[in-house]
Specification:
- The protein is mostly helical and 468 residues long.
- It has two domains: 380 residues, no CATH class; 78 residues, Serine Threonine Protein Phosphatase 5, Tetratricopeptide repeat (Alpha Horseshoe).
- Helices cover 67% and strands 2% of the residues.
- The protein is built from 24 helices and two strands.
- A two-stranded antiparallel ribbon has the order 1-2.
- The radius of gyration is 24 Å and the shape is globular.
């Protein structure tokens, strides 16, 4: 596959912008669970390979992603540099395939701008700069490679089997790319073809693979399987507009977007979300025979956000789940929809005006990579953008306590407790209050802890020395 000077230019700019991400550390959020404390990735052995392909980790089936970690661990162990280099290389490959896909529809200058919009947008930083973002990043790269080779097959009759194989590898990286066969139908539609039974049946193997891996995925999704389906649907109407906002105004990006209010139909954000999604659906329907690219862009965006809408509810206490609206990495390939629409508009106006927006995006991306340098900078960013994520406060409080800055730790634990009553927060804050000599406050918190964890006799025994 020829690497043109235009593609090389796009890749060099992308690599330069993301260069600072290579100095990032492993983070105290999923990196420990997925890599540092995960014995099945500690070396490329037959036993580890079998484990990767026969187990969930912990509820996701991501064997090919684990295989990449096994190779890296065999080479460098727990040194993070190679893991970050791999992520950047995968992002560069994705960018290359985006450029090649756009080139099938647009001129060279427009394709360069479109590929840079895709690669340099700050919303992509989470997938690239976070080692645990590998599963989304890797699956997306195979998705884009499969899409490009499908387009080659449509035009020349070659690479059909290659496209299927790449889709399989993507599914082995993460199930989230299962909408690919529907996206291929959208590409047929964009090329001016009618969506007929023949167009659908020619993709039967894509649909078969997607169905098989969906069955595998739902077998491991025990937490989400028990979630309230009504809440999931209503939360989706908040998540989709939020992602649109982050694409248009990427100034407040962070790792957590919690929703701490009660989810119900009449909530203002749900109603606004229903209105926005309805407008998008109506626009897609209105332009379906007039300006196909508008319908394509909207449906592509919504379709590729859909897999993430089942990931909003996590475990919690007192029967109250932790609800997260979305994550930046879920928009990694969904953003290609808006990019195609912008590329279409650039065909009709001067494209050189995009240089300033691209520079702004690059600067924002460089700044965003800095927030992923360490666990403390990551969680501090959550507080800076005023997201009510108690986990961020809890982790920062732990770092402060470890540094013996007990007053700062106390304040952070109390702020975390205002967001969500958690036995873990209470457990740590009781100890801290005791160390600071605030015994009466410690005793009051101890009573709350006992109500939450009445059977934790070992924990109560340990905490007694801090309240007496």
């Amino acid at each position: 596959m020829k690497l043109s000077r235009s593609a090389l230019l796009v890749l060099c700019i992308t690599a330069a912008v993301y260069f600072s991400a290579l100095s990032g550390d492993f983070l105290a959020f999923d990196d420990e669970l997925l890599i540092l404390d995960n014995a099945k990735v500690h070396g490329l052995t037959l036993e580890n390979i079998i484990q990767a392909f026969t187990t969930y980790d912990p509820e996701l089936y991501v064997p090919f992603t684990l295989l990449t970690y096994q190779i890296e661990w065999s080479l460098v162990g727990d040194s993070p540099l190679l893991y970050h280099i791999t992520n950047l290389v995968i992002h560069l490959l994705s960018t290359f395939f985006v450029f090649k896909i756009l080139r099938r529809f647009f001129s060279n200058p427009v394709s360069i701008i479109g590929a840079l919009l895709f690669s340099l947008h700050p919303i992509q930083v989470e997938a690239v700069a976070w080692v645990s973002g590998r599963k989304d990043l890797l699956a997306s790269m195979f998705f884009l490679a499969s899409t490009y080779t499908y387009l080659l097959w449509k035009d020349s009759g070659k690479c059909g089997r290659c496209s299927i194989t790449l889709f399989l590898l993507g599914l082995l990286s993460k199930i989230s790319i299962f909408p690919l066969p529907f996206c291929l139908l959208l590409l047929d539609y964009l090329k001016g073809e009618r969506i007929t039974k023949r167009r659908i049946t020619e993709k039967w193997l894509y649909f078969l693979l997607a169905g098989v891996f969906l069955l595998i995925a739902f077998s491991g999704k025990q937490v989400q399987a028990s979630a309230d389906i009504v809440s999931l649907v209503l939360t989706a109407f908040i998540s989709i507009p939020l992602t649109i906002f982050h694409i248009v105004f990427p100034l407040f990006l962070t790792i957590f977007y919690p929703f701490i209010e009660s989810v119900h139909l009449l909530h203002p954000r749900v109603l606004i979300g229903i209105l926005i999604v309805s407008i998008l659906a109506g626009t897609a329907c209105y332009f379906r025979n007039r300006v196909r690219v508008i319908t394509f862009s909207i449906l592509w965006f919504i379709l590729l956000l859909t897999p993430s809408l089942l990931n909003v509810q996590k475990g919690g206490e007192l029967g109250i789940p932790d609800v997260y609206l979305t994550s930046d990495r879920y928009a990694y390939i969904a953003i290609l929809g808006p990019v195609v629409l912008i590329a279409f508009l650039l065909k009709r106006i001067r494209w050189d005006w995009t240089i300033i927006p691209l520079v702004v995006l690059a600067l924002l991306t460089i700044r965003q990579t800095q927030t992923w340098q360490s666990s403390s900078t990551l969680f501090q960013r959550v507080i800076e953008v005023k997201q009510p994520a108690y986990i961020a406060y809890l982790n920062l409080a732990g770092y402060a306590a470890h540094a013996e800055d007990y007053n700062k730790a106390e304040k952070l634990y109390e702020e975390a407790l205002q967001i969500r009553k958690s036995s873990k927060i209470l457990y740590n804050l009781i100890q801290l209050k005791g160390l600071l000599g605030k015994k009466s406050e410690a005793r009051a918190l101890y009573e709350e802890y006992v109500k939450m964890r009445p059977n934790d006799s070992k924990g109560r025994l340990f905490l007694n020395k801090f309240i007496l």
